[in-house]
Write a structure and sequence with these properties.
The structure holds two protein chains of two kinds. By secondary structure, chain A is α/β, with parallel strands linked by helices. Chain A has a single domain (3-206), classed as 2-enoyl-CoA Hydratase, Chain A, domain 1. Chain A has helices at 3-11, 48-64, 83-88, 90-106, 121-125, 147-154, 158-167, 175-180, 192-201, 209-215, 222-231, and strands spanning 18-20, 23-30, 33-40, 44-46, 69-74, 76-79, 111-115, 118-120, 133-136, 141-143, 186-187. In chain A, strand 2 and strand 3 (33-40) form a beta hairpin. Chain B is of the alpha/beta class. Chain B has a domain at 16-176 and 216-239: Alpha-Beta Complex (2-enoyl-CoA Hydratase, Chain A, domain 1), CATH 3.90.226. The chains are: A alpha/beta, B alpha/beta.
């Protein structure tokens, strides 16, 4: 689903979200409230500059619309893989974006993420994965890295990785696996506006993804390990 | 009177546990979930890969010059320090415990390629949980100090986590960035990034470059005792994350982008920072670089 169809399904014509060079920004009326919408499209690569543009939008919302809910619409191929971005310090720009989203939550903004197309590692970890909760459309795709690069880094044969990525939930790209592991709160089916309404009503304030992962059987050890550290002598 | 050895011990060549033993007050490290408890990855066996009884990270409480610290040390020799489900949960547990128990500071001896690709999805979620837990520590008023000097550097999601800290100490052989050179070369070709060109890798991601840009707060020699002294100096260096602080950060990062809009290389970027002989930077000592940056910061102030 492209972002225009998505915004229409969520807000009808009661939004002014526009695209500027793969960045989506605008606001929308929803159930009597104004929401700020921020996102990317075109499988945007998140480089240093794009991370700063997103951070700017979050800081603007904090400064000019205290407390306003932020909806993050995610479609990214991951971090931009360029030497120049590394030279500039893309890790610091990403940390800045993540810190801005984190600050928004601490100052009372509700932050909800939605993966509506695809999400890869670096573009996802400082947006949707730092929201109060992240959701996805059923046809969206989430993965960490493309298999050829993964084969090179892990020194595992690409054939093995291809086989594993079909069957193994820890490997396989796919929103159902992220749901089972607690990384996603839910998949939005059917009436998307209703799904947004329900999700906003159920936003957690604590990070309970590890417990969710344990309860859903996708990440059995994370929550228990955290608890064992808290209880250790 | 210190009983510590006066000879230089390479931080890069130490294991995570050797670093903990030498960097913290002698005998003060008390580990949570030590290897004897055998808390291992549930995912590696199905790949036919060996487990580590600590899943590649040691966490616990300790003292540094008598001050109370919570500490984590990642073991680069095990899966490149990659963050899997258990490894990440140990970091999260330590950080949450810090919020509860309030030590003077949290130290993170980071050495990691980021998400452990062998348990990719679980690792990605885990790194974001670590990031949130680290920001919780900062928000509750304790400084988080990151030390980067291991042979594997600090990359990927852990590169972002480290950049979320209050204070970063690097050695000149340390590397801190996001995507490793091999990943960029695999994606964009050798003309984009030649991963075997060591000097290019170092001036793109290395400690001196990061220090010249202001991405790390202290640059030290590859010496465990130099890291200990730097970590001690950092114990009270809180940088609260306020809207004002993030606006200042935004101005700094935007100005850097504007200065390098034409994709200037490292040498050109250093020249624009006011270094008269940037080609000499790789051969300069840590001390020389430190003196230059200190005088430059005085000028700016």
């Amino acid at each position: 689903m492209n972002w225009r169809e998505l915004c229409r399904a969520l807000f009808g014509d009661r939004h002014d979200v526009t695209e500027d060079d793969e960045l989506l920004r605008g606001s929308a009326h929803f159930d009597g409230d104004l929401l700020d919408v921020l996102g990317t499209t075109g499988h945007a690569a998140i480089g240093y500059a794009m991370a700063l543009r997103q951070a700017r939008a979050v800081l603007d919302t904090i400064a000019t619309h205290p407390g306003r809910t932020i909806v993050l619409l995610i479609d990214t191929q991951g971090q931009r893989l360029r030497r120049h971005d590394e030279l500039l310090g893309i890790h610091r720009a990403m940390a800045h974006l993540g810190s801005a989203i984190d600050l928004a939550r601490r100052r009372g903004h509700r932050v909800l993420g939605l993966v509506y197309d695809q999400a890869l590692s670096g573009g996802f970890i400082t947006t949707g994965l730092l929201a109060d909760a992240c959701h996805a459309l059923p046809n969206a795709e989430i993965r960490v890295m493309r298999l050829p690069a993964m084969a090179r880094v892990t020194k595992l044969p690409q054939e093995l990785l291809e086989r594993l990525s079909v069957a193994n939930p820890v490997f396989a790209p796919g929103v159902e696996n992220y749901l089972r592991m607690g990384g996603l709160a839910s998949l939005w089916q059917g009436d998307l506006a209703q799904a947004l309404r329900r999700s906003l009503a159920e936003l957690p304030t604590e990070d309970r993804r590890a417990q969710d992962g344990a309860e859903r059987g996708g990440r059995r050890l994370a929550a228990a390990t955290v608890q064992r550290i808290l209880d250790a002598a | 009177m210190s009983l510590r050895p006066t000879t230089v011990t390479s931080y890069a060549e130490c294991s995570a546990r050797q670093r903990l033993a030498l960097l913290l007050d002698a005998g003060s490290f008390h580990e949570w979930l030590p290897p004897a408890e055998r808390v291992t990855s549930p995912h590696l066996a199905q790949l036919g890969l060996p487990c580590a009884f600590d899943d590649g990270v040691a966490v616990g409480r300790a003292a540094l010059e008598g001050r109370s610290v919570f500490v984590a040390a990642q073991e680069g020799a095990f899966m490149g320090g990659g963050v899997g489900e258990v490894h990440g949960a140990k970091l999260v547990g330590m950080l949450r415990r810090a919020v509860r128990d309030r030590p003077d500071a949290v130290l993170l001896l980071a050495e990691s390629g980021g998400v452990r690709l062998h348990e990719a999805n679980a690792g990605l979620i885990a790194v974001s949980e670590v990031m949130r837990a680290l920001l919780d520590v900062r928000a509750s008023g304790m400084p988080v100090v990151v030390l980067i000097g291991g042979a594997n550097g600090c990359f990927g999601g852990m590169g972002i986590v480290a950049a979320c800290a209050d204070h970063i100490v690097m050695s000149d052989v340390g590397r801190h960035a996001m995507s490793g050179p091999e990943v960029i070369e695999a994606s964009g070709g050798v003309e984009e990034f030649d991963a075997r060109d060591r000097s290019l890798v170092w001036r793109t991601t290395g400690g001196k470059h990061r220090y010249l840009l202001g991405d790390c707060d202290q640059l030290v020699d590859d010496d465990v005792q130099a890291f200990r002294a730097a970590a001690t100096r950092a114990l009270d260096q809180r940088r609260p994350l306020t809207l004002t602080a993030l606006e200042a950060e935004h101005r700094l990062l935007s100005a850097r982008l504007a200065a390098a809009h034409d994709e200037a290389d490292a040498f050109e970027l250093w020249r624009r920072l006011g270094i008269t002989h940037p080609e000499q930077v790789p051969d300069r000592s840590v001390r020389d670089i430190g003196v230059w940056v200190a005088s430059r910061r005085k000028e700016v102030a």
